[in-house]
Amino acid sequence: xxxxxxxxxxxxHVYEAIMNELKRQREGLEMIPSExxxxxxxxxxxxxxxxxxxxxxxxxxxxxxxxxxxxxVEKLAQDRAKALFKVAHVxxxxxxxxxxxLAIYMAVCKPGDTIMGQNLPDGxxxxxxxxxxxxxxxxxxxxxxxxxxxxxxxxxxxxxAKEHKPKLIWIGATAYxxxxxxxxxxxxxEDCGAYLAADVSHISGLIAAGAHESPVxxxxxxMTTTHKTLRGPRGAMIMVTEKGLKKDPDLANxxxxxxxxxxxxxxxxxxxxxxxxALAEASTPAFKEYGQQIVKNARALGESLKRRNIKLVTGxxxxxxxxxxxxxxxxxxxxxxxxxxxxxxxxxxxxxIPKDPAPPFYPSGIRLGTPALTTRGMKEPEMDEIGGLIxxxxxETMRILPSRQLPEDKNTRQAMIREFKEQLPANKRLxxxxxxxxxxxxRFPLYPGMA
Length: 451
Ligand code: DSN
Prior knowledge:
Layout: H1 5-10, H2 12-27, E1 29-30, H3 40-46, E2 57-58, E3 61-62, H4 68-85, E4 89-91, H5 97-108, E5 114-118, H6 134-138, E6 140-144, H7 154-164, E7 168-171, H8 182-192, E8 195-199, H9 204-208, E9 221-225, E10 236-240, H10 242-247, H11 251-263, H12 269-282, H13 285-307, E11 321-325, H14 334-343, E12 346-347, E13 349-351, E14 365-369, H15 371-375, H16 380-400, H17 410-423, H18 428-442
Helix pairs in contact: 3-12, 4-12, 5-11, 7-8, 13-16, 14-16, 16-18
């Protein structure tokens, strides 16, 4: 594994930033549910000479010469994805999830067409038609929502689909802790003739491990990023199912042509190699165990938080993620809890919750998850301890906050956030939590031997 000898001599500034980030990852609890730690084999492939090559096109049909070995790499990635997810066709070239989703739109819709997706503040993704995303501007977006109990409102989605007749329906989320109802959405899409696309970016590792149902029998298209629970490099794949090919025999071709030459140029071959490696890893019994443990850990963490009276959206989880509802304490407080947890080396992200009383940039929730901690080898006893530490930080945040209401005036709001942040380094209770986090992390070494 690289010890960064060349880099440290040639560019000490970049080297120092990388070393600081390595230390941060090692000494903290990484609990953003969309993050993970790739294997060293994946890192080696990403740092390889494959980055030097242009290879527009697809295996055996390239525009440039010299692609005989790139073809091997891309074919390996394709074959492994098809075998793992049991799909008819895969494109492994999308640069990441958002461009992959845009390619799906452009393959099956025209600008102005009606589309449906889960509303962003209800846990959906920007690119499923939210108003600030291009997808909410180019298309006529009709969002569906969750019910007051936090579960998807399937009946509302069915009613909206009947009324608006969308061309494309998304099923998939970034802040949703319960199983995605693929079968019910298949019925909704069939009734109105829509294409159904599953965005399983968050849960594709769980699907590979058998810890979440696969959408493959129910949807036409599946998109996943490759760097979340799947634990590969930062990239994405678009898969076309047998069902999708039955609906539209040209669907695979349309997707491929939209990615290249429609939207992208040369594929990132070093990333494709990392994807191939991650897919082989995800096909092993060890990964099956890993995926199951992610969910066990998330449940244990949820129980630990609830024992300390922390409220969870839907009351718990069936996947890798939890959504803390801070509204019992006040409105728009996610930013303060995120900063206080950061001070204690616990990394999470503030997030909207359903019917959030505060604006999306100052939401009232905290989203957190267990994929990265599980990669480090942590199990239920550690989750129990971590739940207690998080609850300690929430308690301390509420104790030192001057007000439980985020001010509406922009300047007053920013001053409150700044003053809150300034007092964190001197806070003794947060330092005590940080010391416990350091001790815990020390027991689960990350990237031993690197640098
Ligand atoms: N940014 C990703 C996440 O954190 O869920 C979604 O694109």
